[in-house]
Structures are given as C-alpha cells and as structure tokens.
Amino acid sequence: MMRPDTGAAPLVLHLPRTLCAAGAISALAAELDALGVRRPLLVTDKGILAAGLAAKVIEAYGDADAMIVFDDVTENPLFSDVDRGIALYARQSCDGVVALGGGSVIDTAKFIALLAGNTGHIADYAGKPGTPHKASAPLLAIPTTAGTGSEASHSAAIHPDAAAPALGMSSRHLIPRVAILDPVLTMGLPARLTAATGIDALSHCIEGYLSTKDQPLGKAIALDGIGRVARSLRCAVADPQNTDARMAMMLAAYAGGVSIGMGLGPAHAVALACSDQGFHHGVLSGIGLVATLDATAAQVPERMEAVARAFGLAPAASLADEIAGLMRELGLPATLAELDYSAGSIQTLADAAQRSHFNLFAPFRPTSEQYAGMLAASLAVPQP
Asked: In a 3-state reduction of DSSP, which class is residue 42?
C-alpha cells in the first residue's frame, strides 16, 4: 500500500560509520581499506604530534611511508591552513583524509577533503551557502577531545585570516565517512580542558534537543548525550584515566555533533557575541546556558522538563542553577562576571546576540531587550 503524500519534506539524519571502544584505532587500516584509501593525508596539529598521538595513529595504519602528515593546523584555523593542506594532498597524490585532533583540526580536514573532490578555493565555499559542490574525498575522523562533536556534524568553520571572524559551511558532504572514538586518545587532556569541552558538548545536546526541528532520532540522541554528561563529566575530570567516563564523554560529544544539525539557540548566540576576547568556546557556551535557560523554561516548560529529567533533575528544578553549580565545581566560571569578561556596550552585545543565526530554530527567540537583561545579569551590572 502506498502511503499518502503529506507534502512535508522528511528530515534526514546523516551519521558516519562509527567505531567506539578503547583501542578502536586498531581498526584504522581496515576502515581506510574499505574506503579505498591507500595514501591518506593525516591532518593534525603540532600539539597532537608532540603528545605522541600521531605516532599511535601511524603505527595503527601500519605503513608510515604511505601516510602523509600535515601538522600545520593553527588553533583557530585559517584559509591558509586549508591552502597548505590541499597543496600537500595534491603534491603527494593522496586519495583520502584522516583527521586527528579537536574541532579545529577536524574542520580543517573537512575543507581539505571538500576541495580534494571539488574545484576552486576555500573562499568559494566557506560562508557562501548554496554553492554547488560534489562529494568530498573520503574523510575519517579521530577526535582527541570530547566537546565539539565535529566528527558527527555536517558543519565546519574557518577564518579567512587571523583578524576575521569564522565563516561556516554546512553540507552532507562534510560529514566524515567514518568516526573512530577511542577514549585512550583523550586521557592526556588537562582537567580544565576536559571540563570546558564537556560543557560544550552539553550545550550542543541541550539546545539541539530544544530546537524546533522535529527529528525524533536526533532528539533521542541529544537526550542520551545530556544524561552522559550529567553522569560522567565529573569523573572524567577527576579521574582522567577512567576509560568508561572518557568513553561516555566522547559519546556525549558525538551526540552534540548530531544535535548541532537540528539547530542551536540563545546560549550559542550569547557565546558568539562574547567571543571577541579569546575565552574558550565551551566556557562561553556554558555561561550562555546559565544566562538563558530559565527564560527558555518559562516559554517551553514541557521541553525543558524533558531536558531536566535527562540531566537527573526534578521537573521544577532550575537547570540553569544546576549547570552553574556543575561548572563552578569543575573550576569553570559560570557567569560573564566570574569570567572577567570586559563588556563595552551591553546593548551592542544584545543586538549582536539577537541577530545571530543561532536564533533561527530556537523555541524561544529573545528580543534585544531580553538579551540585554540576561547579559546584564550575567555581568552582575544594572540592566541598560
């Protein structure tokens, strides 16, 4: 029997083939072989190289001569990083990309893989939605942090230069073909970075779940990620060698990457507006949650109750207060005042937050005046 045509376009959830276990990088050679990749470009950064993680990946691949290393990704990746990477890819006749690192590395690798399968320059695609493009070269992602979820998301961001804001791109072709989640590779993260990236993952899961996009499987994954952060982040910070806690946080970050595809919200609008002073994005996103979730709860109480339950709270409890307490317990600031953020005009920040694309699928879209009130409260100053 044919189903009736409802006229509604289906919301598709694209996920990479995903391997998750301690020691999962041992499957690297087989996964690349299945992709038909014989000469991969390993995209990483100098910190990962110095930590010995790249050596572990090369050993897992089993052919050091055939894996070409590009370790020139900067902390806030630039067009020039992609230029150098794709030039090396072409010069060495590579046929696929392996990303080893955090979000900056994985995003850079996404753009290198995109250009390997398409003509033109990075400037033809980043920040230019709707630009036609074909499939990327095969990309396998191995995250070394548990925060951004780039290994599972369809998005990437890159800066034209060191003084310019990042430009983004979203495409099904930016999703890695394979993601290998190996918690052993995250055990060397400092406690504060473990905490900040974990809060980043939480912010993705919460705002993705709250988004107005109706994607049932994505919503279930988001709730699962929220619960994993609530149960495991403290342990991952306190006991960095705890494999179970590290694995749980990698899965939470992956869930956050899936959640990004459903849209984010006011917390990320605040984080973006306050990203001008070099503070960690995960910390800013957590501060954004603390600043905005009570107002969101007043607008969509049923959705917030589901989030609170996933976090292990009673429906009437303030999730914003709980997250603030968790952040302080982990040694992170929970407000802009605690962060020592130096605000000029609160109204200018509020206007920037109100204009943010992160409001597009938010169930509660604050006005500039409402953003100003939330920002003033976080800064512990009178509302303008």
From this structure: strand
Ordered by start, the domain boundaries in the chain are 17-186, 191-379
Q: Is 348 helix (H, G, I), strand (E, B) or coil?
A: helix
pTM of the model: 0.93
339 close to 287: Cβ distance less than 8 angstroms = yes
Contact 282/197 with Cβ under 8 angstroms?
yes
Residue at token pair 């072709």 = 173
The pLDDT value given to residue 93: 97
Q: By CB neighbour count within 10 A (0-12 exposed, 13-18 middle, 19+ buried), where does 207 fall?
A: buried
pLDDT band for 7, please (50, 70, 90 cuts): very low
Residue-wise pLDDT for 102-141, tens only, equals: 999 999 999 999 999 999 999 999 989 889 999 999 999 9
**How sure is the predictor about 14, in pLDDT bands with cuts at 50, 70 and 90?**
confident
The CATH topology of domain 191-379 is Dehydroquinate synthase-like, alpha domain (1.20.1090)
pLDDT at residue 1 is higher than 60 = no
Residue 100: beta bridge partners?
142
3-state SS, residue 342:
coil
Measuring CA to CA, how many Å separate 171 from each of 19, 135, 156, 290?
22, 10, 9, 30
Q: How many CB atoms are closer than 10 A to CB 214?
A: 10
CATH 3.90.420.10 at 17-186, yes or no: no
Are 232 and 183 in contact by the 8 Å Cβ rule? The answer is no
